């Protein structure tokens, strides 16, 4: 498998909780079947994980009103399925290695606007955290199960 030689993309992800500890998820415009995900994206050269997380969150959702509760220790990885390697990220990466943050949304929901410069989501909603593994694409499910365990430990 030649794609095993491809590097992992350096990325960030953000868990956005509302006042009821429900989790923000968006429906991707490139995968409009009923699959949802938390905001995430790549880290630019020379950018800190914290700045990358804030930038990605804003670029995808227009959300700026957050309180950072925790930078989760370590990294979380997922590999792309074979049919997407070579297509996503111009074929440069085999998956993503991500630094995740837990945040609390402290703004008004009117702030949430998916009509950004490069829209990635076509819809959004708050879901109970236990629903996270059920709404994500299969190849990210293991990572979401790990994140869910950490979120629950953190909130309890």
What do you see in this structure?
There is one protein chain. The mean pLDDT is 93. The protein has 156 residues and is of the alpha+beta class. The protein contains 3 helices and 8 strands; from the N terminus they run E-E-E-E-H-E-E-E-E-H-H. The protein has a single domain (2-155), classed as Nucleoside Triphosphate Pyrophosphohydrolase (Alpha-Beta Complex). Strands 1, 4, 5, 6 and 7 form a 5-stranded mixed beta sheet that branches. The protein has helices at residues 49-61, 132-135, 141-155, and strands at 8-17, 23-28, 36-37, 40-42, 66-71, 76-79, 95-105, 121-127.
Oligomer: single chain
Specify the number of helices.
3
Q: Would you count the extended β strands for me?
A: 8
Please tell me how large the radius of gyration is. 15 Å
The CATH superfamily appears as: Nucleoside Triphosphate Pyrophosphohydrolase
Helix content: 10-25%
Dominant shape: globular
Gap between N and C termini, in Å?
A: 43 Å
CATH topology: Nucleoside Triphosphate Pyrophosphohydrolase
What is the CATH domain class?
A: Alpha Beta
Question: Which CATH architecture is right?
Answer: Alpha-Beta Complex
Q: Could you say which structural class the secondary elements and strand pairing correspond to?
A: alpha+beta
Low-confidence stretches: none
* Major sheet attributes: 5 strands, mixed
For the residues shown, what is the average pLDDT? 93
**How much of the sequence is in beta strands?**
25-35%
Order of helices and strands: EEEEHEEEEHH
What's the structural domain tally? 1
